[in-house]
Write a structure and sequence with these properties.
The complex is a heterodimer of chains A (350) and B (256). By secondary structure, chain A is an all-alpha fold. Chain A is 75% helix and 0% strand. Chain A has one domain: ABC transporter involved in vitamin B12 uptake, BtuC (Orthogonal Bundle), CATH 1.10.3470.10. With 256 residues, chain B is an alpha/beta fold. Chain B has one domain: P-loop containing nucleotide triphosphate hydrolases (Rossmann fold). Chain B contains nine helices and twelve strands. The N and C termini of chain B lie far apart (39 Å). The chains are: A mainly alpha (350), B alpha/beta (256). The interface between A and B is large, with 35 and 40 residues. The complex binds adenosine-5'-triphosphate (ATP) and magnesium ion.
């Protein structure tokens, strides 16, 4: 993140100061929520023991607490953060690419494809040779890759415009959704339950390995977007204006499309599909910091992380002793946020 | 000297432009005029490399490739719509998006604000571009184009949304930039009196070809206006020596 002084160049001083204030505030809120997320869980641990286990695991009194915090809670909380941030960034760029406020990382069928990959793996119960425990994530990721290539292929033939991408994406979405339904229809009841549980999306599937892989994908994705920040900002003026400013719009769409697919697949492959975050986080971010991608992308990541972390806390508090799948509660947490901003916000343009 | 050679464009097999060629002198301002749908926007876009076209553009004798076209030739679109919450200042800054990095220097920012200042728009700098008037938006995009400081500036009906005073301010500004910085400008226009007053040269486009081309007092006459637009029009010299075109009536016949 750049400092205040360097960013103050984008708009007049006061407006930039207000936007930076928002960015700092939500970062602080996220830090607090993250700690809160680690403190809550079905095992009713003592708050001070948990904090002690976090800060100095070597000297903590209770070894069980240390184990629970380090091998269960920390990876779950980090995964929630990473998935939320990835979906937030992917959603912001999908809305930019398609020029449509209703677009989300799922609009073009990547997550339906990931779900199909997972479902068919569960149905046939096969396992990869070297890494059997990673079979479902790998298959989900590959399946999302196939969807990405399908949309890309169609758009490539017909011209990479927003309209063509949406049409090709929606066709892909329906194809994978119906194949996923077919798998569910064919599955025996126990298998079906397992498939449905995967599709809900839950942080219980998180591990240190998933944290590292998804985290690396998030970092790589954002790094790939960095050089195109200004071009993407210009795309918000429409294709013709962006092109007249010297942007090769087709090449930009192509590049960013692959990054969005990567981020989305990285987010859903391990933990399952989690709705709403990728749609709403970018809107929250846009209302707070505007369209300048230097601020919009970090803010979308933070808002996504915040919604997921809030949802993670809620999913543990809703039914004591159990964890409700987080995919079910993301909307419950995100909607009040959104309503608040719609009611207080002034801007009419998305 | 900026030269375009043999530019041809066809939409769905229908020829819109047929081997258009002309040379534009450094520091001059040319008005491109002609009836609706005759291909003015198409010509400007094809010169800027924004739509596929046959033909070439060359600056100082060197033929520009696609990338060089996008860099040296700036096109300002006709449509002034923008449904974005980008701020006015951000829109102007995007004029130099090729050289913007993660940090924006105070000097660049000051120049962008100065570009807005030429059209008295500093007060709007933090407003969303979608939440100002159509004419104000056109001025903002003009400020963006001038801030970009291109070698060749192609403007598509730059004064269409502007009031009388702003029409004069804008065209004055463009002509001054040409004279001071050696910029080459060409603007598609419909107001022939304004073209006569500000342009060094008027190019009439009709039926896919150039049908008249020259200094305003050479080409602005009732015969050409009848031939190109199908109107009866009077061309008079005003007190300041500038030509005025007053359309009288539309003629019936092949133009209808
Ligand atoms: N994208 C397109 N596809 C097909 N035909 C087009 C397209 N854009 C323009 N045309 C056609 O090409 C011709 C030239 O259009 P153009 O926009 O260049 O006219 P113009 O001279 O700028 O007109 P105006 O004065 O109304 O702006 C018109 O007949 C128009 O119908
Ligand atoms: Mg036009």
């Amino acid at each position: 993140m750049a400092t205040d002084a360097t960013l103050a160049g984008s708009a007049s001083g006061r407006q930039m100061a207000r936007r930076l204030f928002w960015l700092v505030s939500i970062s602080g809120l996220l830090a607090v929520a993250f700690i809160g997320d680690i403190l809550t869980g079905p095992a009713f641990l003592n708050v001070f023991d948990v904090l002690a286990a976090l800060v100095s695991p070597g000297t903590a009194e209770d070894p069980t607490t240390v184990i629970i915090v380090h091998s269960i809670r920390l990876p779950m909380s980090l995964m929630a953060l990473i998935v939320g941030a990835s979906l937030g960034v992917a959603g912001a760029e999908m809305q930019t690419l398609l020029g449509n406020p209703l677009a989300s990382p799922y609009t073009l069928g990547f997550s339906a494809a990931a779900g199909f990959g997972a479902a068919i793996t569960i149905l046939f119960g096969f396992a990869l040779p070297v890494i059997p425990s990673m079979t479902i994530p790998v298959m989900a990721f590959l399946s999302a890759g196939v969807a990405c290539l399908m949309v890309y292929g169609l758009a490539h033939i017909r011209g990479i415009t927003a309209e063509v991408m949406v049409l090709a994406g929606i066709a892909t979405l329906f194809l994978f959704q119906s194949m996923q339904s077919l798998v569910q229809y064919l599955a025996a009841p126990e298998v079906l339950q397992e498939i449905v549980f995967w599709l809900f999306g839950s942080m219980l599937k998180a591990s240190w390995f998933s944290v590292m892989v998804s985290g690396a994908i998030l970092l790589i994705g954002v790094a790939l977007l960095l050089p195109d920040f200004w071009k993407l900002t210009a795309l918000r003026l429409g294709d013709e204006r962006a092109a007249s400013l010297g942007v090769n719009v087709g090449a930009l769409r192509r590049r960013v499309f692959f990054v969005v697919a990567l981020l989305t697949a990285g987010a859903v492959a391990f933990v399952g599909t989690i709705g709403f975050v990728g749609l709403v986080a970018p809107h929250l971010a846009r209302m707070m910091v505007g369209e300048d991608q230097r601020l919009l992308i970090p803010a979308s990541a933070i808002c996504g992380g915040l919604i997921m972390t809030g949802a993670s806390i809620a999913s543990k508090l809703l039914s004591p002793g159990a964890v409700v799948p987080i995919g079910i509660v993301t909307a419950l947490v995100g909607v009040p946020f959104l309503f608040g901003l719609i009611l207080t916000g002034k801007q009419r343009h998305w | 000297m900026f030269e375009i050679k043999e530019i041809s464009v066809a939409y769905d097999g229908r020829t819109i432009l047929d081997r258009i060629g002309m040379g534009l002198e450094q520091g001059t301002f040319t008005a491109l005029v002609g009836p609706n749908g005759t291909g003015k926007s198409t010509l400007l876009k094809s010169i800027a490399g924004l739509i596929p076209a046959k033909g070439q553009a060359a600056l100082a004798g060197r033929v520009l490739n696609q990338n060089e076209k996008l860099k040296t030739v700036a096109y300002m679109p006709q449509d002034t719509g923008a449904q974005s919450s980008l701020t006015v200042l951000e829109v102007v800054l995007l004029g130099r998006l090729q050289s913007l990095g993660m940090r924006i220097g105070d000097d660049i920012r000051a120049q962008a604000i100065a570009a807005l200042g030429r059209f008295h728009l500093e007060a709007l700098q933090d407003r969303p571009i979608g939440a100002i008037s159509g004419g104000q938006r056109q001025l903002v995009f003009l400020a963006q184009s001038l801030f970009r400081a291109p070698k060749v500036l192609l403007l598509d009906e730059p004064t269409a949304a502007l009031d009388l005073r702003h029409q004069l301010i804008v065209l004055d500004r463009i002509r001054a930039t040409c004279a001071d910085n050696g910029m080459i400008a060409m603007a598609a226009m419909h107001d022939l009196s304004l073209a006569a007053r500000f342009a060094d040269r008027i190019v009439f486009l009709n039926g896919g070809v150039i049908c008249a081309d020259g200094a305003p007092d050479k080409v602005l006459n009732p015969e050409i206006l009848q031939q190109v637009y199908g109107v009866e029009a009077e061309v008079q010299q005003g007190q300041s020596g500038v030509l005025h075109v007053s359309p009288v009536r539309a003629l019936q016949g092949i133009w209808a």
